[in-house]
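User: My collaborator and I are trying to settle a disagreement about how two of our proteins should look. Neither of us wants to argue from intuition anymore, so we agreed to look at predicted structures for both before our next call. Could you fold the first one, then the second, and keep them clearly separated?

Assistant: That sounds like a sensible way to settle it. I'll keep them separate. The first protein:
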Amino acid sequence: MGLLEKRALKTFQEGTYQNLTNEINTLAGFSLELDVKWETLALDEYSHLYEEAFTKVYFTPLIDALKEIAADDMGKEALKETLKKVVVKNEVGNCYGSTCYAFSEGVLTVDHMPFGNIDNVTERSEELAKLLMQNL
């Protein structure tokens, strides 16, 4: 990771990421543990896309799914009882919502390429909401 990538990553972590985690925790109704494997996301030569891509690929679908699930007290309670942690990484090269999510023992894993199908937010949001609702 070069200096451009390090700067772009730090800017995202200290700005947009903080706002996104605040929104996630507010929607969930509790402080949700987020374990982001930044070193797998911050690919060289893509620093100009970090802001848009990380937001659309990883966090907007989670926010959309939480909005749907936490629409009532039953959903909020199910989230609090079941969802313990979210792991965000890019290890196996997934680029579709239908293959990038896994849920096991209270841990939601998001394994998606940060720069693949960036604008497929709706697909990812729907797949994630479906998976979570099946497991809550």
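The second protein, kept apart from the first:
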Amino acid sequence: MPPPIDAPKGSKRLETAGLSLTGRRILVVDPSQSLPRALRGVQGANVTIARLSMIDAELMARIAPDVVLSPLFSPGHDILDFARLLDRLGYKGPLRAYSPPLPNTSIVCAEVRQIWGPRDFDILEVPPAWN
């Protein structure tokens, strides 16, 4: 079993080393240009990039991700829509949304936790310099 994700709940900046993604199966959904670039330094991770329309029970079973990363907002959906889908598909692992810096992530996290419950969720803020 891989070590726990150690992006602390209060962490608001994406620091690739701080995510401990080495050796993990990572599903990145509808990525922006910045996040895959940030993942390039991660050693030994198995990164799968998929569109939201591709996410179904078969894909989730085949990939068996240790962590799922998705933008907070994308054209046509947001993290709430995606959390509902993952919940229906039975995914129980960590979910990370990423976005430019926000004025108050706790409000968004509270909304997502209404759907996601006690499972591991956090928002990673991607610094503007990474865009």
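Some points you might bring to the call about the second protein. The radius of gyration is 14 Å. The beta strands are 25-29, 46-50, 67-71, 73-74, 77-78, 95-99, 121-125.
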